[in-house]
């Protein structure tokens, strides 16, 4: 099934709201940041309206990321008939940004729902069909971990992915057996023949990823990483630059994008795309609940190539020759490595 991409938060919100308004049977929303502060995009009211109309509305919010959502807003949703669950574990967060409509259409990617992100570049996709069915089961596993007991979610049959599918769902789930991001990245990085492009807002790579990228560079694969020139936190800018300088030393090209780009993308050989909620950092690969898709559908890949080309054309090369890390950059990188899990 061909997907539809949205390259800013606001464009994604428009489409997500229209999908909510058009829902006939169910709305499942799992969101890292949802605070109700989206002027012109009243998700709370629309979810409330649909719940009062008898549509099954289930909302899972990360307790840390969505801390800014008022208790009053949660009670409004519950009073309307929606089920609201909070995901609350110490280091582990649900970092997903996923909306499933009628168990047939799913939005996923990097787009949170908060006014602070309105002007950000990002990437969200909408796909329908079997991928959405897999997403429902993934949502249900998190729902169960949050104490959910609705049998309509818990006891639905696990669908099968046909080998003819051109789009596949990937995740790091709550349970270890559903944590497949690392294996996915290792397989597709190692399988690259001529090029890899990675886009991430936050660059805190695992040693295994550095090693895999170094190996493919050594055999002639061109690897490019796009990070924002300026993120939403100054200390993350410093850590991004520190790791960009390390990558430049092993032959990986790093580019600084204009504006805050929150997208999470991998494109291999201009023929296999991956996108989702996962950053190239320790939290996403070791701790968080994440979700995404990968695809070789030629129309989706062509569209993704156009999007990446726009980002690359406006980006600047990382100034590897003049960058000098400070002692506290090195210390911070060392401290972050303490949170990395070993196989």
Task: Give the N-to-C terminal Cα separation.
Answer: 35 Å
- The CATH homologous superfamily of the largest domain is called Endonuclease Chain A
Structural class: alpha+beta
CATH topology of the largest domain: Endonuclease, Chain A
Which consecutive residue ranges, at least 5 long each, have pLDDT under 50? none
Summed up, the domain count is 2
- What average pLDDT do the residues reach? 92
Helix content class = 25-40%
- Main beta sheet: strand number and arrangement? 8 strands, mixed
User: How much of the sequence is in beta strands?
Assistant: 15-25%
**What value does the Rg take, in angstroms?**
20 Å
Topology order in helix (H) and strand (E) letters? EHEHEHEEEEHHEHEHEHEEEHEHEH
CATH class of the largest domain: Alpha Beta
Report the total helices.
Answer: 11
Q: What's the shape?
A: globular
Pfam families: PLDc_2
GO molecular function: phosphatidyltransferase activity
GO biological process, one term: cardiolipin biosynthetic process
InterPro entries: PLD-like_dom, PLipase_D/transphosphatidylase
